[in-house]
Structure formats: structure tokens, C-alpha cells
């Protein structure tokens, strides 16, 4: 059957984009840095619009702002990596979101093989080749075919983004090194610094 891109009728509710950001920011995510390489130059960009898409074939999605420098670069390279940040990499996230951090510049290391650049020391990284580009309003939906998986320190905790700020998981001490499953393990919850003074 041919693939039709169906469109639904648009009703135009008046929604303030700032309100949309505030409400959608209540969906907690991890934080990634998407990296790509053109020749010897590595470019990275912080992104939380990441999700897995398909198991057969193995596909993931990242959404890239059309105005971002990353947008033409990732297409030129054709390959990219998604680096999941751990809770100690908040400065890395800020650095790749347009706030250069001296501490990061000194310590940042990328993989040196031919593949898409991995940020050494990340929680985990996924290498991809571009599978499909789908227009998504002011963003491009980049569908990546997974070509390699790297896992860092399995005991490390993720960096979390929620409500416009960075958060971390609080795991009660005895559960700290068991693999936390947020659906089965009640001891895992998002830790709000505000709630604990
Ligand atoms: P620039 O703004 O030029 O570069 C990004 C930053 O990375 C710059 O500070 C640059 O100095 C640094 N940098 C790049 N390469 C290197 C390198 N090799 N070594 C050292 N530093 C380097 N935008 C999206 O499009 N999609 C998202 O899903 C998304 N999610 C976000 C989530 C969070 C939590 C945050 C804070 C921002 C998010 N953004 C997202 C916004 C995006 O990260 C910024 O707009 C970013 O600055 C866009 O990057 P750019 O490609 O335009 O390049």
C-alpha cells in the first residue's frame, strides 16, 4: 500500500508558546548531546527531544531546530551520535547549549576512530546513520538507524531535565547499584532540590 501522509483539519486554539513550553517542560527527560563530525571538526548540541522509535529495524529520533548550526551539519555528515549525560555532566549540557564552560573545554574528549564522535565518560552513547528526515514545523525530525551502542558506568545516574531546570534521581542507598526500573522500583523518584530546601 502506498504511504500517504494524512493531514487532519486544523482547529486554531490560541495557545501562548511560552505556556506550551512551561507545560511540556513538566514531561521529565534525560539530557543528551548530539554530536557529529565534518572532517576534523566535531560539533555538539544539547538535546532532550530524543526517543527510541523502532526495534526492527533499530531506529531512534532526535528533533533538531532548523535554525541550529547542527541542522545542516548533521545532514552533511550523514552520521551522528547521541550521548546520554550522567548527573555529573550538567556543565557539559550547558556547554553544548550555547553557554561555553571553561571546565568542559579543558576536559572534553571525543572518540578518535572513524565513527560519529562519542563524548568519553558519558552514561551511554548510540551511534546512528541518518535513516530519514521528516519535517516537523520549525524542527526537523531526524530518524537515525542505530549502528553502535556504547555503555559507560552502569552504576551512574542520569542527568534529568524537568520544569526548565536540571534534576537528579534520588535512589535510596541500598537500591543505588541495582538497575533501577522506575515502573517496578518504588525507591526511584525524581528529586526536587526545592522540596528539600
Ligand atoms: P551552537 O549554539 O553554535 O553550539 C552549541 C554549543 O556547543 C556552543 O556553545 C559551542 O561552543 C559548543 N560546542 C559545539 N561543538 C563543540 C566542540 N567540539 N567542543 C566544545 N564545545 C562545542 N535544541 C534542539 O534543536 N533540539 C532539542 O531537543 C533541544 N533540547 C534541548 C534541551 C536542553 C536541556 C537545552 C538546555 C537545550 C536544548 N536545545 C535543543 C537547544 C540547543 O541545545 C541550543 O539551541 C544549541 O545552542 C544549539 O546549537 P547549535 O547547533 O545551533 O550550535
Blueprint of the fold:
Elements (H helix, E strand, L loop, with lengths): L16 H8 L4 E2 L1 E7 L2 E7 L2 E6 L2 E8 L4 H8 L1 E6 L5 H6 L6 H6 L16 E13 L2 E13 L7 E4 L2 E7 L16 E4 L6
Antiparallel strand pairs: 1-9, 2-3, 2-6, 4-5, 5-8, 6-7, 7-8, 9-10, 10-11
If you had to describe this structure to a student in words, what would you say it looks like?
The chain has 197 residues and is mainly beta. The protein contains 4 helices and 11 strands. A 7-stranded antiparallel sheet has the order 3-2-6-7-8-5-4. The chain has a 4-stranded antiparallel sheet with strand order 1-9-10-11, with no helix packed on it. The protein is globular. The chain starts with 16 loop residues before the first helix and ends in a 6-residue tail after the last strand. The model is unreliable at 182-197 (pLDDT under 50). The structure holds flavin-adenine dinucleotide. Residues 31, 42-49, 63-65, 68-70, 93, 95-98, 100, 108, 161 line the site of flavin-adenine dinucleotide (FAD).
Concise summary:
This protein is 14% helix and 39% strand. It contains 4 helices and 11 strands; from the N terminus they run αβββββαβααβββββ.
Q: Structural class, please?
A: mainly beta
Radius of gyration: 18 Å
Q: Determine the fraction of residues in helical runs and give it as a percent range.
A: 10-25%
Unreliable sequence segments: 182-197
Largest sheet: 7 strands, antiparallel
Taken in chain order, the helices and strands follow as: HEEEEEHEHHEEEEE
Identify the quaternary structure here. Answer: single chain
Count of strand segments: 11
Amino acid at each position: 500500500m502506498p504511504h500517504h501522509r494524512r493531514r487532519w483539519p486544523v482547529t486554531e486554539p490560541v495557545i501562548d508558546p511560552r505556556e506550551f513550553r512551561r507545560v511540556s517542560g513538566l514531561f521529565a527527560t534525560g539530557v543528551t548531546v548530539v554530536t557529529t563530525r565534518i572532517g576534523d571538526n566535531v560539533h555538539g548540541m544539547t538535546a532532550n527531544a530524543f526517543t527510541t522509535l523502532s526495534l526492527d529495524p533499530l531506529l531512534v529520533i532526535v528533533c533538531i531546530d532548523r535554525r541550529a548550526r547542527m541542522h545542516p551539519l548533521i545532514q552533511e555528515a550523514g552520521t551522528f551520535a547521541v550521548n546520554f549525560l550522567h548527573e555529573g555532566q550538567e556543565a557539559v549540557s550547558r556547554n553544548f547549549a550555547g553557554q561555553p564552560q571553561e571546565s568542559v573545554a579543558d576536559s572534553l574528549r571525543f572518540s578518535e576512530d572513524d565513527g560519529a564522535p562519542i563524548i568519553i565518560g558519558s552514561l551511554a552513547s548510540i551511534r546512528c546513520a541518518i535513516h530519514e528526515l521528516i519535517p516537523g514545523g520549525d524542527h526537523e525530525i531526524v530518524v537515525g538507524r542505530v549502528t553502535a551502542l556504547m555503555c559507560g558506568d552502569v552504576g551512574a545516574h542520569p542527568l534529568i531535565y524537568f520544569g526548565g531546570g536540571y534534576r537528579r534521581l534520588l535512589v535510596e542507598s541500598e537500591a543505588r547499584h541495582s538497575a533501577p526500573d522506575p515502573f517496578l522500583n518504588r525507591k526511584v523518584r525524581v528529586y526536587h532540590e526545592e522540596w528539600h530546601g
